[in-house]
Amino acid sequence: MTHPSPARRLRLGLPRRVFSQVLLMQVAIAAGVAVLATGLFLAPLSEQLDDQAMRRALAIAQTTAAQPRLAEEVTSTAPTADGPVQREAERIRRSTRAEYVVVMDTRGVRWSHTEPAQIGGHVSTDPSQALAGQEVMQIDEGTLGRTARGKVPLRDGDGDIVGAVSVGIAYDSVRARLIHAIPELLAYAGGALAVGALAAWLIARRVQRQTHDLAFSDIAGLLAEREAMLHGIREGVVALDREGRIRLLNDEAQRLLGLGEEAVGRSPDEALGAGRTADVLAGRVMGTDLLTVRGQRVLVANRMPTDDGGAVATLRDRTELEQLGRELDSTRGLIDALRAQDHEHANRMHTLLGLLELEMYDDAAEFVGEVVGEHRATAEEVAERIRDPLLAALLVGKATVAAERGVALRLSGRTRLPDRLVDPRGLVTVVGNLVDNALDAVAGTPHARVEAELRTEGRTAVLTVRDTGPGIPAGQRELIFTEGWSTKQSPAHRERGIGLSLVRRLAERQGGTVTVGEAAGGGAEFTVVLPEALAGADQEAAYAALPGTRGVGEEESG
């Protein structure tokens, strides 16, 4: 059988709960302070009582030596047990309750003593200082035991020293006074200890409530687990205090927000700058799963208040999901375009079949030529004006989708865009979002039309998308660029309210701007200006000879 070590037994004997440990420590501290205070008080008290006893003995000796006939009787009588000096000394001793009053001559011979047999003998302590004219106070051992003594010279009428007076107060009486004071002192110390124990109990109860009666080891373990969890999870966590200052940022939050440890202690506005992200963290925008854009990241934020007046905000990275959602939208758009082409192709095949069955061969050949020429003209017209293949393919696909939805998608006659784009993918995102929003705005309206204009001014690209929809009220023209704002119902796979915000973010990242106003014929007009969007020298002159205005899928006008 194994036995636990002494250290193990000691640990098992200690209380584990915070309440018990705090109470035990507080009581121990209070008891230690009480004992220390009592000791510090008793030490000077003992010295003070000794000093008082010696001064009292000295005062009795001075009073005895001042008796007018005492010096004369010492010089004129013999040292006897019933002599006048013995009678006077005993009277003084009894009246003052001194331990002894000894009168001696210049040889140190006693003329008085509490024990008559000692009269005529030499004193047991050195009387030389008193006989030399000095007053002496001391604690000393004599025939009567340990006493507090006072010695003074005895002078005659001429001031000559004829002897000395020694008065003693038994030291036991001083000790008795000290011992008598100890219970009272201990009572005060006990009262202080009781008050300390009560205060310790109240503090321990408060700590117990705040720590949910956990052990210190449990609290340390929870703290270690919290640190590991906060810095290990792939979700940003931002804790704010009651003043709205950041008090904690885990590693993921620092990565998502682009902040460092220097942000701790600052407000969201100071750390992040003005914007929706700071508004969400500060609680000025309320709700669940709030969308916000920080840099190139799309974040979903939730904020929960805490009991101490602060708050904890969580951030999830939705960038990849939004990219997948946009790719899904692009795929869906392609599918819609293919579906529209398939529907249109089926109609044309039926028409061609009817012409052939009616043996109208010439008309059938002419019909086939017109269809092929129309598609070729549309693709060639877009490719001539927009030399970037990604943008050209995007607009050809959007034109097919627009036709299926009953919307005429046109290219402005001023459209000229060379194949020298610095960020063609970013421009595809900008144009795609603006055209999609325009198609949604005019869907279901009579004579629905969307016009896109892509041109350059030096190395600056200017993109304009106009529609014939209901337009945007002046009071909402800035609000529409806010993350999460949308007038349309969100699709199942993702939330809306990101497209226009991303357009502004992409434009601002390149030092550009996005504005919205009213189109000339009604509806909305979005204008994006992107400085330094083109690489190399200006090639605008190379496109000056292009044809005039032609709608996508239409014949040249004018």
From TrEMBL:
Pfam families named among the record's database cross-references: HATPase_c, PAS, sCache_3_2, SPOB_a
Entry EC no(s): 2.7.13.3
GO molecular function: protein histidine kinase activity
Organism of this sequence: Streptomyces broussonetiae
Location in the cell: Cell membrane
Topological category with respect to the lipid bilayer: Multi-pass membrane protein
Record region (Disordered): 70-90
Transmembrane segments: 23-45, 185-204
PROSITE patterns, per the entry: HIS_KIN, PAS
Catalytic activities: ATP + protein L-histidine = ADP + protein N-phospho-L-histidine
Keywords, alphabetical: ATP-binding, Cell membrane, Kinase, Membrane, Nucleotide-binding, Phosphoprotein, Transferase, Transmembrane, Transmembrane helix, Two-component regulatory system
Main location: membrane
SUPFAM superfamilies registered for this protein in UniProt: ATPase domain of HSP90 chaperone/DNA topoisomerase II/histidine kinase, PYP-like sensor domain (PAS domain), Sensory domain-like, Sporulation response regulatory protein Spo0B
Residue ranges constituting the PAS domain according to the UniProt record: 222-264
Domain Histidine kinase: 402-534
Protein name: histidine kinase
